Amino acid sequence: MQSVCMEFDEEEQRIEEPMALYRPDRRKKAGIRQTIRHIDAGLPMGEFDVLQQQLCLTAEQLAKHLCITKSTLLRRKKAGVLDRLESDRLLRFARLFGLAVDVLDSAEAAQKWLKTPARALEFASPLEFAETEVGAREVENLLGRIEYGVYS
Question: Coil, helix or strand for 4?
Fold first, then answer.
């Protein structure tokens, strides 16, 4: 089955900080305090759009994972900025995507893996499991086991 998602050039899709933090290897470059300030101020909707494209999801699908209702999503699009909690959740998913890309060696493989139910996650997809911080940590642990070849 061919992917219907558009290919993207990671460097061209970056929108200021905190997009640079989406890949774990770039964390030191931006600084955690600056990232926290961006989250507190609310990330621009452009960050939502880029992550939506990277994950190959519809806006409604990504909003559901971020616990944003359709009406709230429309308000956020109009305002052009996410609130603090939504920004924090968005960064959580972006961090997981970056980690999955690093471990699985391609954006396409990461997209597929994040959407596929996993036995190690009680047959939920990593995206579903990561809707809470505790679940996201377990997805990170699973990616670590995959990276080091530990049976999961």
Answer: coil
Measured CA distances, 72 to 21, 33, 50, 150 (Å): 26, 28, 19, 41
CB of 28 within 8 A of CB of 35?
A: no
Instruction: Find out whether 127 and 93 touch, Cβ atoms under 8 Å.
Output: yes
Q: How far apart are CA 14 and CA 53, in angstroms?
A: 12
For 73-111, write each residue's pLDDT tens digit.
Answer: 999 999 999 999 999 999 999 999 999 999 999 999 999
Q: How far apart are CA 127 and CA 85, in angstroms?
A: 17
Going by C-alpha positions, the residue among 89, 114, 121, 82 that lies closest to residue 100 is 114
Q: Which of 28-32, 48-52, 89-93, 136-140 has the lowest mean pLDDT?
A: 28-32
- pTM for this prediction: 0.80
